[in-house]
Amino acid sequence: MGLYQGPRLLDFAKTPSHLQFNKYVLTGYRPVSTAQECLRSLFYMHNELGNIYTHGAIPIIYITLLCYPTVQQTALLAYILLSAYGIYCATTARTNVLRLRAFAWQGLFRFSLFLFRVYGSGVGSPNSLRLFVIMDSLAVVGGVVNIIQIPERFSPGLFDNWGNSHQIMHVMVICAIIYLHWGTLEDLAWIKSFQCPTE
């Protein structure tokens, strides 16, 4: 990867403490950067190049609460606001455990929607729920791998640029997003023939 000559990268010891989440990734850290420098970092090799930050489950809320418009709009707003707060908590977290915990409530929020689909009056395709459970399972596994820092804990320095736990977590999140997509497609196909019951 060499479209842009990036800045001199830092080793773990010279990295600012708020970016020292993994003592087993020894090199390749970006220096503190401006917004423009962050964009440029998409075009040179560093130890976070393979990481993609994605999280969110708006379609699940929308479909599950379809027949309850007021609750639906309130839940969507709450999810968006709490997601913004979760991002703030994750970006200011001092450890991987705290960073993962910043997103744990999102999983609990979705789990409550799954329960509402199964035991309550929530709606959605019967086939989508399985896909959404796989989605969240993949995300949790990725988060745990990131916390326990495998495989780099067994060979410090070997996985600095590729294959470290943080990148594995992001791959798991990408896979989770694919399952979210498939589940959403199931729900959208299902909704074409669904009508909320009249009161």
What distinguishing features does this structure have?
mainly alpha
Topology order in helix (H) and strand (E) letters: HHHHHH
Number of beta strands: 0
User: For the CA atoms, what is the radius of gyration?
Assistant: 20 Å
Structural class of the helix and strand makeup?
A: mainly alpha
Family: Belongs to the ADIPOR family.
Transmembrane segments: 52-69, 76-97, 103-119, 131-148, 168-185
Membrane topology: Multi-pass membrane protein
Organism: Stegastes partitus
Care to describe what's here?
With 199 residues, the protein is an all-alpha fold. The chain has two domains: 10-41, no CATH class; 48-192, no CATH class. Helix content is 55%, strand content 0%. It is built from six helices and no strands. Helix 2 packs antiparallel against helix 3, helix 4 packs antiparallel against helix 5 and helix 5 packs antiparallel against helix 6. The longest helix has 27 residues, at 165-191. The chain is elongated, with a radius of gyration of 20 Å. 26% of the residues are buried. The model has no long low-confidence stretch (mean pLDDT 85). InterPro entries: AdipoR/HlyIII-related (IPR004254). Its main location: membrane. Keywords: Membrane, Metal-binding, Transmembrane, Transmembrane helix, Zinc.
